[in-house]
Amino acid sequence: MTALTLSTAAAPGLRADAIVIGIAKGAGSPSGNLVVAPGAEAVDKAYDGKLAGVLETLGASGGEGEVTKLPAPSGFKAPLVVAVGLGAQPEKDASYDGEVLRKAAGAAARALAGSAKAAFALPVTDPADTAAIGEGVLLGAYTFDAYKGNGGTGKDAAKNGKAPLAEAVLLGGRPRDKAYKAAVERATAVAEELNRARDLVNTPPNDLDPQAFAAIVQASAKEHGLKVQVLDEKALAKGGYGGILGVGSGSASAPRLVKLSYTHSKAKKHLAFVGKGITYDSGGISLKPAGHNETMKCDMSGAAAVFAAVVAAARLGLEVNVTGWLALAENMPSGSAVRPGDVLRMYSGKTVEVLNTDAEGRLVLADALWAASQEKPDAIVDVATLTGAMMLALGSRTFGIMGNDDAFRTAVYEAAEEVGEPAWPMPLPEHLRKGMDSPVADIANMGERMGGGLVAGLFLREFVGEGITWAHLDIAGPAFNEGGPFGYTPKGGTGTAVRTLVRVAELTAAGDLG
């Protein structure tokens, strides 16, 4: 992954392949409508103060994420200047929003693929800005080329396109200041684990079945000193995990329930994160049609996010206990698969009539939620690519947040907004619960079609232990980007919800959540 360093060097004398600066739309500026952002004063001076005009001549508008390249002026040790748009210039005495800096840094890092070193002279007013820029660089430079050429190495590497930017030097900070050092360390830890989640989401399902996923978690747990417990199909059967077993019954790859635990000696709170981990979702007997199953390797994005968040919490040394529960199964049709009309007895003891085998995520989550509840955590947050209905409601870039406590739901929403993950609070209307009444079981896994994302949330609520605060993140829309890259978001797996979960853990550790 791209290496981050801090420097106080002046941009003109810094040896690098490029100097990255920010430009913005600024009404009333001398050059028309384009202004050079703070941090690039030395670069602008080298152009005799006319850099904005030169960029306008080249067609730059200052729009967010727009990248314009031009030769560096005489005397610079870097041959290239890269101007990245920051959108509208902030009002007087206001600074640029962290998410704006994060997106700009990501767009620039992606545009500099193939470069060995770049210096980022973007606006910095405090360590939070440095963290945002560093995070944007690391996330924007991400590539997944494990299956191209020779796995991205050796003589076949050229087949894979350009390698990610190797090193990013962040200017404007203070290398000897503990706060700036901590900002870079946090950005590195969170981005590395988020990119690990992206790798998992992008890995083909023939190489990432439940057993393989569990093995990866076990290896990481050993590396970071975490406790891990893996329940195989025999242990699941003995324990009565009917939801996970039922979903996985049609596959040759047996299901797993993975428990990953991070503890801190000074922790006063305990969080449980629960992730849906369907390593491939064919829909089962309720088979998905062509056009709807090609990207279903991403149906384990929730489990990947939970895994990454727990490891990130450990790397950051957060003073909170965090337990991750990964409900892993492959949903396939076969003679042994669960059928519409079957009744499953869940780990909680409740029975569920399966009306649609493609509503399988809620079944594995139900068992994992109840398992998490047995430890009486202070709060549970589950993450899942759960419903197409949520995509219809909120689109492809925003996830929905539901919960059994309005204040906690709001706190999780605010945490998501703070880290730059678009989200929206959603209700759990009580009248929709009746639609899941079953004549043969305690509850059915389907209800009313309209409001399907909310119905799924209501189903999950049935399996949260009494008195436990809970939130549900339906990340079906933003978990997998089928379009082109934007900002620091690549095509393919995005790592959505990792940063939200980490921020929830940080705020809980500090006693500031809600």
Which helices and strands occur, and which strands form pairs?
Elements: E1 3-7, E2 18-29, E3 32-36, H1 41-46, H2 51-57, E4 67-71, E5 80-88, H3 98-111, E6 117-121, H4 127-140, E7 167-171, H5 178-202, H6 210-224, E8 227-231, H7 233-239, H8 242-248, E9 256-262, E10 270-281, H9 301-316, E11 321-331, E12 343-345, E13 351-353, H10 361-373, E14 379-384, H11 388-394, E15 399-403, H12 406-419, E16 423-425, E17 443-444, H13 452-461, E18 469-474, E19 480-481, E20 492-493, H14 498-510
Parallel strand pairs: 1-7, 2-5, 2-6, 6-7, 10-11, 10-14, 13-17, 14-18, 15-16
Antiparallel strand pairs: 2-3, 4-5, 8-9, 9-11, 12-13, 15-18, 19-20
Helix pairs in contact: 3-4, 4-5, 5-9, 6-9, 8-10, 9-14, 12-14
Largest sheet: 8 strands, mixed
Strand order of the largest sheet: 8-9-11-10-14-18-15-16
Unreliable segments (pLDDT under 50, ≥5 consecutive)?
A: none
Number of helices: 14
What is the strand content?
A: 15-25%
Specify the overall morphology.
elongated
Provide the residue-averaged pLDDT.
95
Helix content class: 25-40%
